[in-house]
Amino acid sequence: MSAEHRRLGLAALLALGAATLPFWAADQYQLHLATLIAAYWVLIGGLNLVVGYAGQLSIGHVGLLSIGAYAFAILAGKAGLHPALAVAASGALCGIAGLLLGLPSLRLPGFYFAMATMAVALIVGEVVLAQGELTGGGVGLPVPGFPAPFDSPAGFYWLTAAAAAVVTWLTWNVARRMQGRGLIAIRDSVVTAQAVGVPVLGAKLRAFVFSGVCAGVGGSLFAALQSYITPDTFHFELSLFFFVCIIIGGRGGILGPFLGVVVLTALPELVSPLAKLGNFFYGLLLLAVVLVVPEGIGRVFELVAARLKPRPVESVPVQPDLPRLARALRSNR
Amino acid sequence: MLSALVAGLATGAVFAATALAYNVMFSTSKVLSVTTGHLPMLGGVAGAYVIAGLGLPWWLGLLAAMGTGALFGLLTELVAIRRVLARSDEHLWLLSTLALATMVQQAVGLWWGTEPRPFPRLIPQDFSAGLADQKFWLPIALAVAMAGGLELFYSRTMAGKLFVAMSEDAFAARARGIPTDRIRVASYALAGALGGLAGFAAGQLTFAYFALGLTLTLNGFIALAVGGLGSNVGALIGGFALGLLNALASYWFGGEYQQTIAVGLLMVVLLVKPEGLLGSKQVRPV
Amino acid sequence: MSPAAAAAVQPGASLRAVAVTRRFGGITALDGVSLELRPGEVHGLIGPNGSGKTTLLNLLSGYYEPSEGAIALGNEPLERAPVQRRARLGIGRTFQKPRLLPTLTVLENTMLGAWPHARAGFVETAFGLPRAAREDQAARSRATELLHGVGLGHAVARRANLLEHAEQRFLEIARALAARPRFVLLDEPAGGLSTDEIDHLGGILGTLREAGIGVLLVEHHTDFVFRVCDRVTALDLGRMIREGTPAEVRHDPEVIRVYLGA
Q1: Given an 8 Å threshold on Cβ–Cβ distance, is C84 in contact with A197?
Q2: CATH classification at residue B210
Q3: Is residue B202 part of a domain?
């Protein structure tokens, strides 16, 4: 259990650092980056249940992000709705979009599903361009901000970080309970999932709809942060970025993908040649991870730790305790 | 109207050729590679670079297109397929080919530029030829020839028969001493050369454009799934059907919803006939 | 057993296959076979490779639908019921090649078996309502007991991909038992086990029998089958050639001819 405690300690430290970030950030740009990471995480945290836990390779989540962002911009801007209501509405809308997309496509085998999600990302782009009166077409759309106290950079950061914290809490609850085990069973062995009674399509669909709601909320915050959105804001490569964060961070964890999004967002800003290489760099990282450590970068640390402090697994013969088994079988039948 | 149909058939031919490349790789590896659409993209860019950029004759451009495609096919097999197939996780190949596709697209974008560039004329012909223009009939003729050629290859040649044996049962093929690794490499090189050829033939229609790959990966796959995975005739039918549907839809409704309509077609076919028009049902035991 | 599902089936009901036939394309893998598995009975299923043993197991657990014939639990017809419904009704199984979740611990693999008893849904779990935690705690303590019971107490916190072969087999049994099944269908559980481990397996099967669980044992170790089973069914080429007590089946001339050898 000590590993569990260490992980919780690290998470608490991260949370403390994130909560006080406006006080120690060097400049407004760092604060902006941190807000961006939080908005991304709202989406990626939800997507993590789909990709990292249930193993469904959705490469088109930028489509849902785009729907959420445009819904927020239109509702809070043109329609003059209160931004809080607009966030809720775009979350709901993206949940419904997730349902409509997931219901047919989650039945399909992996590659079909990936292609379907990718197609949806392209379709959303098409529709945004075609419905110029509503979305501003190629010109784009201004996005209103939030009212006080969230109208300052620090205030908006705290709002976004709070949303990210809520998403983290929700996914953590799912991940460590029976629901999370069911999703992992779907990822690692559908046959096993069926054998123990997990409704495969239903469980996938729930996770996918949840990721849709997260994408809607994340998209709203993302749009408000950008303050102006165009179809180019939601290029397909952004989707790849979300996806790569999770795969590199490691499937089946929360901390790994979170560190993934932090590092992959911050790194190109710090090392400018990487920004020029852009997707080539993400592709290379993804390829390296898949070929060398398919379990994600976190696995490297585990392996190093095991090398430094070897704990040999001693072979113990299986020795059933039949009276105890009988008691366990009898208990509260 | 007629011009819309011809243009649709030509676009469909590119989708069909991509679907054929999918089939060649799928037959030996049971992998659907995300890099498939990037093969024609590479062919188009390589051809345009050699002919228009370096001023060399067209047949050198053709060689460059097919060679680049074949090389990239080889690279795909060696880097993204071989090591991954040895593992049990069935989704890893999707990730590795996606990674490779992203890298090649970005690399071409950085080197070639992100704007579509025109592809040179291959055959001396006036631009007023209209429907008889080579940019339409070259890809159409090529896609049909490719499908026919593949069928002949599978039924008449020893190498083709080995492909078929491996596609039916790779384990049995290996047990009978067929060098399955080498055949898989060969199939990826063949698919690469064919994909490069298709991109070369369709260059005047699609332009030499770095972002073509992903579009073709998706639309070629739709053509494949509609026609039935594994069927070359199905790939032709699926490609042409998708191209015609796109053309008619833009003729009647304007060109804004092409992708939407393509995916709509896919969904309808998958709901009615999940194995595609000419595909075979797979029995999957526990 | 979840309450709603349990209400549909009377206690003491048996799991039956009645004249089931299963064809794959032109091949008839199973041809009009009947089998009754009673609670508290260890029932052996033997036969040469390709005789249809695993096919019958897959028909009973729901991975295949019969081409003809009926599957029923008591009065409840099951031949069209999906695998998951049968799991909720108390039909558990193991696999010839153990199918574990490699990244989870042995304990969590076992807890997964208690899925049919978890009533807390996705939203309830996400919002951290107490029922999900309570159910998890119950599943955890019961899984721990089961693991000690089958002899995996030393490996509770180990990742499943680090288990040895025998441990994997016993973990699969523990996972099936975590669902509180009426019946468990074991697909070659003795495969690859040492003599000692097979003896332990025999002890576990005896305990299951005493607890009133019906066990279907698909197995090639005929000595083991005849030793631990109450009844045995022998298949050949998709047909049943003999059903009876171990002594009857063992001395049946047809069984000796096609399977046991002289």
Answers
A1: yes
A2: 1.10.3470
A3: yes
Residue C159 within any structural domain of the chain: no
Quote the minimal CA–CA distance from B96 to chain C in Å. 21
- Intervals of chain A under pLDDT 70: 1-2, 311-313, 332-333
- Structural domain boundaries, residue B112: 2-117+134-272
Name the residue facing A184 among C104, C126, C196 (closest C-beta). C104
The predicted-structure confidence for A278-315, as pLDDT tens digits, reads as follows 788 889 988 998 888 877 777 777 778 777 777 666 77
DSSP B129: G
**Pair A244, A93: CB distance under 8 Å:** no
Q: At C237, phi and psi to the nearest 5?
A: 50, 40
> Residue C82 is part of which domain span?
3-10+38-101+165-260
Q: In the β-sheet with C15-24, what is the strand arrangement from edge to edge?
A: C27-37, C15-24, C68-73, C76-77
Q: Do C148 and A333 touch (CB under 8 A)?
A: no
- Partner B contacted by A116 (CB < 8 A): yes
Cα nearest neighbour of B281 on chain C: C25
Q: What is the CATH number of the domain that holds C68?
A: 3.40.50.300
**Chain B partners of C95 at a C-beta cutoff of 8 Å?**
286
Find chain C residues with C-beta within 8 A of B285's C-beta: 24, 58
According to the model, what pLDDT value does residue B284 have?
Answer: 42
Q: Are C110 and C174 in contact (CB under 8 A)?
A: yes
C-proximal residues of A, 158-217, CB under 8 Å: 169-171, 173-174, 176-179, 181-182, 184-185, 188-189, 191-192, 194-200, 203, 206-207, 210
Q: B-chain residues within 8 Å CB-CB of C63? A: 286
Task: Indicate the pairing of strand A141-142 with strand A228-229.
Answer: antiparallel
Structure tokens at B253: 């409704």
Q: Please count the structural domains in chain C.
A: 1
